[in-house]
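Crash report, auto-generated. Payload:
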Amino acid sequence: MPLLYPLLLSSALFGIGLYGVLARRNAVLVLVGVELMLNAVTLQLVAYDAWFAETLHTGQVLTLFVIALAAAEIGLGLAIVLAMFRGTGTIDVDATAEHEAQT
Amino acid sequence: MNLPEVVFLVMSAVAIASAVLAVGSRHLVHSALWLVVTLGAVAGCFVLMTAELLAWVQVLVYVGAVVVLVVFALMLTRSPTGARSAEVTANRPVAAVLGLLAAVGLGATVVAGFSGERITGARPGTAESIGDALFNHWVLGFEVLSVVLLAALIAAIVLSRSGSER
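Recovered output after restart:
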């Protein structure tokens, strides 16, 4: 399989995730965009590992670490979003920015 | 073009289409469910790149845990779940341009650097080989990561406590 297939798929997923992070108003969906970007990174790591084929399996082990860190990140991120909802009554990032600006 | 390449291209098309729907859908819950399709298609790509252990980890951790957390958060924050509930910000055109620039830039870089290279699958990432590498050579990173996970767990509990107790 050409190495370019997974790398180009990863580039497309990263761009889509970046759009999601910048364009969404709901804070939970911003986190969904972050997850898409992290998946682009893991796809790239796995592709390089399968291409390089060394005994340490650096790319795949790092992918395991990234997946574990992504799980920690989404847990913390959602806890912060819930705290934000309790504090301001909304998880709209634009409304929260205006709220911060007024106070 | 052999069968794995065709299956990989189909999986890629599914992943990209469902990712576009996940960031563009008007329904909040639909966005979370399209994310499941994207992550499942990426897991299929992992299998085709001989990373079978990572494909199962992806299904277990992402599809099993992360998406459930996202759906729970959507329910707990009482987000409006009807049509046109997932409004986008006013800077949507800028976001689209930046996302397109990032994708084109990354794509041009990998085309310039890796065109012509092929994945042979000489060392498949089975559970045995990954476990061997992880526990013989990557033990320190593994242990540090477990401490990071514990810290994140405690931080999430502290953040989630209701404010009246503090």
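Post-recovery validation: Chain A touches chain B through 73 residues (CB under 8 Å).
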